[in-house]
Fold each of these.
Amino acid sequence: MTPANPNILLIGLDSDTRKALTNLLEARHYKIQGVQTGEDAINALQKQNFGAAILDIGLSETDGLALLTTLAKANTMLPIILLMESAPTGMDRSNELMNKGAFGIVPKSHFEFEKGLLLVVSEAMRPRTKPFARPF
């Protein structure tokens, strides 16, 4: 199934990871734009409509959680997928991240990282007519 909007914004990834994810996702017919900073992400979202965003929660120049909340509030239709060094420990941490606006969480250290990411991206890119139910 082709997504209604195949554009994905990659935020805050190191250059090697950004290249690898760009190749992986472009091979599946997604269109990728990468930005390094939170400010660049906000500017990109003001200029272009994206079907999803992938945010490295370890974003160095700003607090990744604050950026997550800002992006989720700015565009309630945007699924935001978090990349983390490891899976969040416990349901409380997962729930906290989802409450702040995350659509899904993919640990970078998981041995099936690519498969897990593609699964979450595929679900995030499904056509929607209503905003996500976000608790804030």
Note: Residues 23-28+37-87+96-119 form a domain with the Rossmann fold fold (CATH 3.40.50.2300).
Amino acid sequence: MKTYQKLCTEFYDLEQHPHGEQALAFYMEQARKADGPILEPMCGSGRFLIPMLKAGFDVEGFDASPFMLDSLRKKYAQISSNVAPVSQQFVQDFTSERRYQLIFIPYGSFGLITNYEDIKKSLLVLQHYLLPGGKCFFEIETVASVLQPCGVWRRGVNSRSDGSKIALSFITSYDQQTQLFQSFSRYELLEHDIVQETEEETFQQYLYRFDELDELLRDSGFMHIKKYSAFEPTQAATPLTPIVVYECEAVCD
């Protein structure tokens, strides 16, 4: 995996997501409603999984990035002597001996699966592991979410507890035909404003047309499909909604 490496993971952990508290409250509520085991694919460094574990939910996760998982395991070790219930897997290749009452993928992470065949396979895998009557949530970014203007450099800096900093410089592009949003990113570890370490990555994300995922979900065996603006179930999504939450169920056995 060529993204979500060491400095990227640390920058991610230091970054305050603009909808972080609202998103956590939303998914914690779904966890409370679930009467059974919970799975978070693409769980990253544990922004949702760690609070759910602290709350006593039967939850586990997986991610493709060893750096993200290493960060998660270190956080979990601070609150438990048990082994963190996570594994390193890709969604399309996921296997488990369990099935789940709730499966959720927040923060548009599902868009990181950019190959069309992998997208279809991933949906079939998730549908297979969802218990009858269980719910699956996908939070996606749409073509209306493209950061404008593209083609200009942006920069962000986050401070570590020791006073050093991690800086991110990035430039974006968007291809309307392939619906791929791309960001070339450069991370720098700065000590007294002197660069000590660098890391570069090209980040790609597939952005969905308004009704595009509806058809894919139905073809994969999902039903009772709802979609609304992020974290607002009473606010229906429109073609101009940048972040959409899908709520759906698996076809009963």
Note: The chain is about 25% helix and 35% strand.
Amino acid sequence: MPVFAAEISKKRLILGLVLVLIGQSFPLWIPVISSSGLSDAWKQALTGIFAFGFPNLFMVTTVMILGNSGFEYLKKKIFGWFKKQFAPKDFVGRFRYLIGLILFFTPVLFAWASPYLIYVIPDIGIHHVAYGIAGDAMLILGLFVLGGNFWDKLRALFLRKAKVTF
């Protein structure tokens, strides 16, 4: 049974949103725990609690406050906002598509050629992690620049019954 915004108390909805945000922020404290002077056993225990325990506890508390249908409403609003803000456009122009293809295929070609380029450019072997991270970032950025239609094309590569139409 769907819940409408008028059926949920505004205070409960705000409290639920705050609890979700606080609960999902606990994993951000893991680097602080890892670099602390605590013993390894305490670091491992706290890391597990901060990664899985507290976020789940806050999620269950949010469901208890809002109810299942209220939580679904809140989740729909949050993911709807993220989709509206960050989802790639379905159709992109010719120039943007060209830039996206360059961003997408440059790291692929570089990764393919790097074992051969190591003899010409020795620094590739020394800084291979930095080149790998930069290449991964370019590849992901290229996917977003290429837009939603390219995601469909990429997905079709993995569907046996997909057909190409021109």
Note: The chain has a mean pLDDT of 86.
